[in-house]
Design brief:
Layout lengths: L4 H15 L5 H15 L5 E7 L6 E8 L7 E3 L8 E5 L2 E9 L8 H14 L5 E10 L6 E9 L2
Antiparallel strand pairs: 1-2, 1-5, 2-3, 4-5, 6-7
Helix pairs in contact: 1-2, 1-3
């Protein structure tokens, strides 16, 4: 099933509106799942998997719509997960996962749409994990250097 430019523009516009809402990240992601499942008839399961926040080499299931799944944790490199990654800078933080019950139904245009949505989502994935202060000089003329390390979720 072909994706028209009008439908793509509508989905991108709606995605931007969802991301601008004053809601928690997971509520936004669930709304995006619902949007994609509603707008693209061949998307039967739409969800997000997050990279493990503790650095384990596995994905954790996030918000999704569709049938329940036993795949709540997936080791890196297993299955087909990771086809539409969400990046924060150079780091992999999450992915969009799409299942279709229609063989060969995910088109090049749909993949490009998902990649564009993934780029929009990068800013939703961050949290401060470490904060350190380094003092240079005497107390009265201290130069303070702040080092902020971001832990990707």
């Amino acid at each position: 099933m072909s994706l028209t430019e009008e439908t793509k523009d509508h989905i991108i516009s709606e995605t931007k509106q969802i991301l601008n809402r004053n809601k928690e990240r997971d509520a936004k992601l669930l709304s995006i799942c619902e949007l994609l499942e509603k707008e693209i008839a061949t998307f039967d399961w739409v969800g997000f998997y997050f990279a493990d926040p503790e650095g384990k080499q596995e994905l954790h299931l996030g918000p999704y719509v569709g049938e329940a799944t036993d795949h709540t944790r997936i080791p890196f490199g297993r299955g087909i997960c990771g086809q539409v990654p969400i990046m924060k800078g150079d780091a992999f933080v999450a992915q969009i996962d799409i299942d279709s019950n229609t063989r060969g139904s995910i088109t090049k245009e749909q993949r490009e749409l998902l990649e564009e949505i993934a780029q929009l989502l990068g800013s939703e994935f961050w949290s401060v994990s470490e904060f350190s202060v380094t003092w240079t000089g005497s107390i009265s003329t201290a130069v303070v250097t702040f080092e902020l390390k971001v832990k990707l979720l």
